[in-house]
Specification:
The structure is a single chain. 42% of the residues lie in helices and 19% in strands. It is of the alpha/beta class and 550 residues long. It folds into three domains: 2-153, Aminopeptidase, CATH 3.40.630.30; 174-335, Rossmann fold; 343-549, Dehydroquinate synthase-like - alpha domain (Dehydroquinate synthase-like, alpha domain, Up-down Bundle). The strands form four sheets. It has an eight-stranded mixed β-sheet, with helices on both faces. A six-stranded parallel β-sheet has the order 11-18-15-14-12-13, with helices on both faces.
Length: 550
């Protein structure tokens, strides 16, 4: 029983669905479909003061899509507002635990107004759906249904969330000298030192780390050679080396690629029952176990030093996939901004893009405004715009490098998305671009983002208006769509300012129509999945965005 406008109404779930054949026949006059509806629909009767006012039915089509079928108010109660109340009751009864799901409604144009008043927002429409697909006309409250409307139930503004950041951050100059003490604090007895190219060796950093570990009587083995878009083959090598030497702790010295590779090795050590760690990344297996990891950060970009996620490339299949769990979050992260001084400007710029995208993937959420979370995200983005340029002008600017290094961690430890639902479409699109063509992750993100934004912004132009106003200070002059486009252009202009590409061709890759189709096929897992939450993107959508981004 529910109170609406100080009156009590209630919905009664029908147990004997057979007696509601008339309702279900109205819902779909195609005879062969009736049994399916009887079995699959949840049918409700609607009462006020024990008087039966009308009926409604709801069907779950998938975990994110529901269909409301044949909402019927009996004729003598038409024009009394009961249609709106029935929708409201159905939402409370059945959808109260679901937020931002998609609802299919076969109704008249007039009927959509009822749904909007009950917290739904219009998504899109399939014109003449019922006329095209049904032999007999379907009526709702005496009005013929012609179109299928896709609506979204807005629900509440803030999602439930758990914010978990167990990583101990040690920030400042010369802190890498204390790595031995930190490793000992977290129980390390035999360490695998994992790093990338020769710069960590040439700079003397690896020697400093070895000295610090030796001073704490911690033995170690080492494995270098990590490349951008970390390779599965090196992870296999690391797992074998770690098992042969009874490694119980992995120390990643580098940026996101090294840390992600270390996490892959950590999964292999901690899960002897999983024969192939790649099964985690392609969704065949799951685990919450990972060997402990520590980090000495030398590149501010991926945020992997505080996150549970990792991204790995399987070279022979040109697939780039991700996996994560909270126990893969590093035990500690040492952050000395001075260790980033020697980075090439291109790598700095790629890092700036990646940091911003980790926040923007969370910011462009289907959830409504989140006052505090939004302000944190917008502040981080403005900080990156300011200090990203300064760090490129002078890579030895400690203040700029420190701000960027700290932003890198905050952008990907969950803080900038608390209460929202992440989108992650741009990352998913880039993963397959990077997996096939091995381009720098940040460059791939900037090359794709503008096309994604132009493709989806009409889903919620006001969100893009807020982005334009609060991140770039653009005045709200003109329509929402005009201001939204100005915000997208401002983001692209910033990418240009730091010499990052805003199209795929600017990375040196010229996609053919066949290449576009191949990328969409990979990204959609052969058409079996969609990506995104701000707007759900299916294989056809992915192909259009790749094509726009060319």
């Amino acid at each position: 029983m529910y109170m609406i406008n100080n009156k009590y109404y209630y919905l009664k779930r029908i147990k004997d669905k057979k007696k509601n054949l008339d309702l279900l026949l109205l819902a779909d006059p195609e005879e062969e479909a009736i049994d399916k509806y009887i079995n699959d629909c949840k049918v409700f009767e609607f009462y006020y003061r024990d008087i039966l006012i009308g009926q409604g039915a709801i069907m779950q089509l998938s975990s994110t899509t529901y269909e409301i079928k044949n909402l019927a108010i009996y004729e003598k109660f038409h024009n009394c507002g009961y249609g709106k109340i029935l929708i409201n009751l159905l939402c409370k009864k059945y959808l109260e635990s679901f937020k931002n799901i998609e609802i299919l409604v076969g109704t008249s144009e007039q009927g959509v107004g009822f749904y909007k008043k009950c917290g739904f927002q219009f998504s899109h429409i399939i014109k003449d759906f019922f006329i095209t697909n049904y032999k007999q006309p379907i009526f709702e409250n005496g009005i013929q249904c012609k179109d299928m409307f896709y609506l979204k139930f807005k629900g509440v503004n803030m999602e439930n969330f758990a914010y978990y950041t167990p990583t101990k951050v040690v920030f400042g100059k010369d802190e890498e000298k204390n790595v031995g003490k930190l490793a000992k604090e977290f129980g390390a007895k035999k360490v695998l030192i994992h790093y990338g190219g020769g710069s960590a060796v040439r700079s003397g950093l690896i020697d400093k780390i070895k000295t610090s570990l030796t001073e704490e009587n911690i033995s170690f083995v080492e494995l270098g050679g990590v490349k951008p878009n970390p390779r599965l083959s090196l992870i296999y090598e690391g797992i074998k080396l770690a098992k042969e030497n009874s490694v119980d702790f992995i120390l990643a010295v580098g940026g996101g690629s090294v840390i992600d590779s270390a996490k892959g090795i950590g999964y292999g050590i901690a899960n002897p029952d999983i024969e192939d760690v790649w099964d985690l990344y392609i969704g065949k297996k799951k685990t919450q176990k990972c060997a402990p990891i520590g980090v000495v950060l030398t590149i501010a970009a991926a945020g992997s030093e505080m996150s549970g996620g990792s991204v790995v490339t399987k070279e022979d299949e040109q697939l780039k996939r991700s996996y994560g769990c909270d126990n893969a979050r590093p035990k500690f992260a040492i952050m000395n901004p001075e260790l980033t001084y020697t980075l090439p400007k291109y790598q700095i710029a790629c890092g700036v893009v990646d940091i911003m995208m980790h926040t923007m993937e969370r910011y462009f959420s289907p959830v409504g405004n989140l006052e505090l979370t939004d302000k944190i995200a917008e502040g981080l983005l403005r900080t990156m715009i300011k200090y990203g340029k300064l760090s490129l002008e002078n890579p030895h600017n400690y203040e700029a490098r420190a701000e960027i290094m700290w932003a890198s961690s905050l952008a990907h430890n969950g803080l900038t998305g608390c209460g929202g639902i992440g989108d992650w479409s741009t990352h998913q699109l880039e993963h397959d671009l990077g997996g096939v063509y091995d381009i720098a992750h940040g460059a791939g993100l900037s090359a794709v983002w503008g096309s994604w934004a132009r493709y989806v912004y009409k889903e919620n132009p006001k969100r893009f208006v807020q982005f334009a106003e609060n991140v770039f200070g653009i005045e709200k002059i003109g329509t929402d769509e005009e201001v939204a486009i100005k915000g997208i252009e401002a983001m692209e202009n910033f990418y240009k300012d730091i010499e990052m590409p805003i199209s795929i061709s600017e990375t040196g890759i010229n996609l053919s129509d066949e290449d576009v189709e191949m990328l969409a096929e990979k990204c959609s897992n052969n058409g079996t999945r969609y990506i995104g939450s701000f707007k759900k993107l299916f294989k056809e959508d992915m192909a259009k965005i790749y094509s726009m981004a060319r």
